[in-house]
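Weekly structure sync - notes
Attendees: PM, LS, DV (DV joined late)
Agenda: review two folding runs queued last week.

Item 1: First target. Sequence and structure tokens pasted below for the record.
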Amino acid sequence: MEEEYPKREEQPVSTPDYDQLERERHNADFITKEDHPPHFHEPQNPDQKGFQSPQLRLDKNAELAEIDKELEELLQKQHAKVKVFGLGGAGGNTISRMKEIGIKGGEFIALNTDAQDLLYANSDHK
């Protein structure tokens, strides 16, 4: 014999009052920068960990500028040849997409045993 359970009353589903939620969100107190302690990269005094004097920052910027200059000179002396090989259907699609979006400065080569896929590959060499 099956037991009968008392029927539960269905409770109406309430929908949120979106206008009220928007008003509460709009009237919320917003957190300002003054509410938080300074970040590590914004030290306030020389005794604080992470503090950099203005002179130290200028020296570091000058050092970085010198490194950038050396890198530019090195790049001017080097002439690298870039070859991109696309293998199979996915490789052919990748090469076609790279050429379609305008990537330049390299040689695109498609390799595939499927002649039909190779036919549709947009590459410099097949």
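Item 2: Second target, run right after the first with the same settings.
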Amino acid sequence: MVVYEQPATLVTASAVKLQGCYVHLNNEDENLKYRISTSESMTIESCQKDCSRYTYRYFGVANKTECYCGDSLRKEQTSNECNYRCPGNLKQICGGSEYMVVYEQPDILPAASAVKLEGCYFHYDDPSSNLRRYKSSNESMTIESCQKDCSVTTDRYFGVISGTHCYCGDLIMSAQLSLKKCPGNPEQICGGFDSMVVYEQLL
């Protein structure tokens, strides 16, 4: 198994792009319909952090305390209805009554060169093995695609085994070497039979 360490994805509010103030009516045809969290100490940064785990393009705050995520904006924006201060930072705006302030996420998925290669590890199909959280299988597997799949978890590491299987987790053990090229990018290594190349997300 090729194992990498995940990077941190939280950015400050100044690093995200403001999209504007949008109508938010809690129906199926809604902007950013996935409510991810609610907090009485909501800030733009805390909502961005919650949504960054799910790789959505946009995040937004409505009614002071509600954080939403999504990939599309349907309703037109308005200019002056988002006037609620964020309870966790009174210098920020956290939407309005039936209105949401929306931001676009920065590019949070790093290239494989931005993650830390931990090495190649044995990977057995048992509870004591490295990186036990199975995420995906892809005949066009790359390090970037596995990293993206694991970025929705809080796991520190991600890895690829047998060229096509992606795992996430926090535990790695003794290193062994058995290499196989990634089918989606022959310049990368995606583990071998019963072995996983492990990367760590950079902190």
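Discussion on item 2: Residues 122 and 160 are 11 Å apart (CA to CA).
Action: LS to circulate a short write-up before next sync.
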